[in-house]
Amino acid sequence: MQPVTSTRRVVRRGPSQESLLARGIAVSQKPSRRLPVLAETRRLISPSPRAIRLGRIGQSARGKWLVLSALFIGSALVYGAVLGGQTARAYDAVANGIERTAIAAGFGVNKITVTGKVHATDAAITTALGAGPQTMMLGFDTDAAKARLEAVPWIKRARVMRLLPSTLQIVIEERTPFAVWQKNGKTYVVDAEGAVLAPALRQAYADLPLVVGEGAEKNAPELVEQLAPYDALRSKLLGAIRVGDRRWTLKLFSGTEIMLPDGNVPAALDSLAKLDDERDVLSRDIAAIDLRLFDRVTVRISTAETAKPQGAAPQSDVPTASTKAAPAGGKT
Fold first, then answer.
1. Which among 329, 327, 287, 331 is positioned nearest to 307, based on CA atoms?
2. Lowest mean pLDDT among 28-32, 132-136, 209-213, 318-322
3. Rg of the chain's alpha carbons, rounded to an integer?
4. What does DSSP say about strands 247-252 and 237-243: parallel, antiparallel, or unpaired?
5. I want to staple 300 with a disulfide (CB 3.0 to 4.6 A). Which of 69, 237, 287, 289 is the partner?
């Protein structure tokens, strides 16, 4: 009978948790019976997660409060500016800043060209234009400048154009001198529309007709047109006097006055031309020829021994509305 041998099951136990921990080796904790254990637990662990989350919430809230505070302060400033009437000043400050920036960038008026100028002065044009090196091209009002230029007496029409970055181009059409108008002892040059262009000496515009009296400057074009066919009369004409703003009295270099009617002037001038052809009245020593009546011509003979020279009259002989004729001598 063989002897019975007993076998022992040798169970090898690993090192204890305490020994492992003592050696610095991490060991898994005993799972809780209440909470499930997730795999890779150590990878989800972060230090103080609540602290980080609270910190982010605090920064976000603080940013919102800063924005709200800024909006509140800004609104209060705007409200205070409106109540205090400072909005216009603030707007002007911003606009001036933008304008200075544009000028510094080369968008200021550095050059002005003018076309069509003959009589208008540079000073008058520059003053009316109202532009200079400190004027911003982009904000320059060309329509307003056009209106100011056309208010200059010599300028009839004007165009103002911006040539970026820094040039203003001006094209003007000037008024044409038509006559010299005398009123209250002063003389002015006027155009065909009666617009007064500038004070002027008679000698400076010797080739223009001289008209005298109230309303003469506006009615001169009609008279000049009516006298156009009568060369003999125009060559002897010193000036024309407007009487009561109704009719004309012509003054010749010889001193003769020709009184025209207040209507049907061409017929009266035809009668005068016929009388001159027959009796040479425009060259005789005659004080006045009255054409105011349609059916007759009245002539007053001068008592002077000689007629005045046919040349230009001196300044003292410029006709006025108070010119008096010599005593009547007869009729023709």
1. 287
2. 318-322
3. 53
4. antiparallel
5. 287
Which stretch of DSSP H or E encloses residue 298? Answer: strand 298-301
Topology of the domain covering 111-174: Ubiquitin-like (UB roll) (3.10.20)
Structure tokens at 167: 């040039």
pLDDT digits (tens, 9 = 90+) for 250-301: 999 999 999 999 999 999 999 999 999 999 999 988 999 999 998 889 999 8
* Chain-centroid distance, C-alpha 286: 56
Task: Tell me the one-letter amino acid at 15.
Answer: P
Q: Where are the alpha helices (DSSP H) in the chain?
A: 17-22, 41-44, 49-84, 87-104, 122-129, 142-150, 216-227, 231-235, 265-279
**Neighbour count for residue 137 (Cβ, 10 Å):** 20
Contacts of 293 (CB under 8 A, 6+ apart): 261
Residue spans of the domains in the chain: they are 111-174, 179-317
CA distance 94 to 81: 15
pLDDT in tens, 118-170: 999 999 999 999 887 878 787 889 999 999 999 999 999 999 998 888 889 99
Q: Which two tokens stand for residue 15?
A: 């090192």
Buried b (16+ CB within 10 A) or exposed e, 150-177: eebbbbbebebebeeebebebebebbeb
**SS3 category, 19:** helix
β-strand 167-174 against 196-199: which pairing, if any? unpaired
Could you write out the DSSP letters of every residue in 153-207? TTEEEEEEEEETTTEEEEEEEEPPP-EEEEETTEEEEE-TT--EEEE--GGGGTT
Q: Closest Cα partner for 205 from 263, 119, 295, 269?
A: 119
- Arch. (CATH architecture) of 179-317: 3-Layer(aba) Sandwich (3.40)
